[in-house]
Amino acid sequence: MLTTTQLQNEIIKLKKDKDVCILAHAYQSHDIWEVADYVGDSYGLSVQAAKAPQKTVVMCGVRFMAETVKILSPNKKVILSHPQASCPMAEQITAEDVIELKKSYPDYSVVAYINTTSQLKTVCDVCVTSASAVKVIKNMDSDKILFIPDCNLGAWVAKQIPDKQFKFVSGGCPIHAAVGEKDVLLAKKLHPNAKLLVHPECTADVVKHADYAGSTTGIMDYAKSGTDSEYIIGTENSIIQHLQYACPDKQFFPLSKHCVCDNMKLTTLVDVYNCLLSTGGEEIVMSDEVIGKARRCIDNMLKLGN
Ligand code: 13P
Ligand code: SF4
Fold it and tell me: Is 90 among the domain residues?
């Protein structure tokens, strides 16, 4: 049996020998962070995917993230760390739904959260992440925005851009949307001196109490650079452990003990090892047509978000 450190050393050796880049979303476990070449939020991962020099990328996260890497680097071999890791939000709306919606809102530009399928991105104008949404939409020529599918994120963005008109369709992250105002009131009662940091996938009732709302990287940067010593974390609970490693002198508390994403939790260090041995993971295969059309949507985000 290998120890965690032995397994990590094997992975580090294999990725060098095989010219593999390991990308990990911030919600991955700490043992995976330690072997990754880059860890970040969805926006950071997209930027990194476009410039990674290696020929093969292992994406530790969920399916839409691996698809984004493939779209941005079609000549690379892209492996999703666990074939069953998918974001349920990405299944909430299809390309056919968007085509129908466009008929009702012909003068609106369609902005898709990156947590969507690549097929859906082929019929949208631009995609966004929580980190890039405000900047991207501010920089768009259009003043009429059809934002899909996360209504909570959409409402948070719309509040910051009052001069544009927004339409939403129902959808969102089931994990973040399940956190309620009662969780905020209880956490604040238990930790009255703590700053509250939340992901904008949470409901407006939660976000309105926040000292900071932003992407996973934004939350981590705020807590790491802040002068306060206590923080309530309103996003996937893995972030608490990462922050505890980064700032052992500070204290971090979950906003809700239920804020756990089963899909992000599927990938283990052994899965990463198996990807490198070519005995695990799933290679992402997409048609040139889907890659070409979906790429426009992601390129627009990178252009308008920079
Ligand atoms: P970030 O863009 O903040 O990484 O969020 C991705 C995600 O899936 C949040 O639930
Ligand atoms: Fe999808 Fe929510 Fe999990 Fe993020 S936390 S991957 S949005 S289900």
Answer: no
Does residue 152 sit in the same domain as residue 294?
yes
Ligand 1 pocket, mutate which of 199, 235, 267 (most atoms under 8 A from CB): 199
* Cα 149 to averaged position of ligand 2 atoms, centre (Å): 12
Q: Which of 121, 112, 122, 99 is nearest to 145 (CA)?
A: 112
**216 Cα to the center of ligand 1, angstroms:** 6
User: What secondary structure letter does DSSP report for 35?
Assistant: T
Distance 16 CA to ligand 2 centre (A): 30
Mark 272-282 as b/e (b = at least 16 C-beta within 10 Å).
bbbbbeeebbb
Q: Tell me phi and psi for residue 149, to 5 degrees.
A: -100, -5
Q: How confident is the prediction along the chain (306 residues), in pLDDT tens digits per residue?
A: 899 999 999 999 999 999 999 999 999 999 999 999 999 998 899 888 878 899 999 999 999 999 999 999 999 999 999 999 999 999 999 999 999 999 999 999 999 999 999 999 999 999 999 999 999 999 999 999 999 999 999 999 999 999 999 999 889 999 999 999 999 999 999 999 999 999 999 999 999 999 999 999 999 999 999 999 999 999 999 999 999 999 999 999 999 999 999 999 999 999 999 999 999 999 999 999 999 999 999 999 999 998
Residue-number span of the structural domain to which 101 is assigned? 95-174+290-304
> Residues lining ligand 1, judged by CB closer than 6 Å?
26, 41-42, 115, 129-131, 173, 199, 201, 215-216
Q: 168 and 115, same structural domain?
A: yes
- The ligand with the least distance to the CA atom of 264 is 2
Predicted structure pTM score: 0.95
Least Cα distance to 69 among 54, 83, 84 occurs for 54
> Which CATH number fits the domain that encloses residue 272?
3.40.50.10800
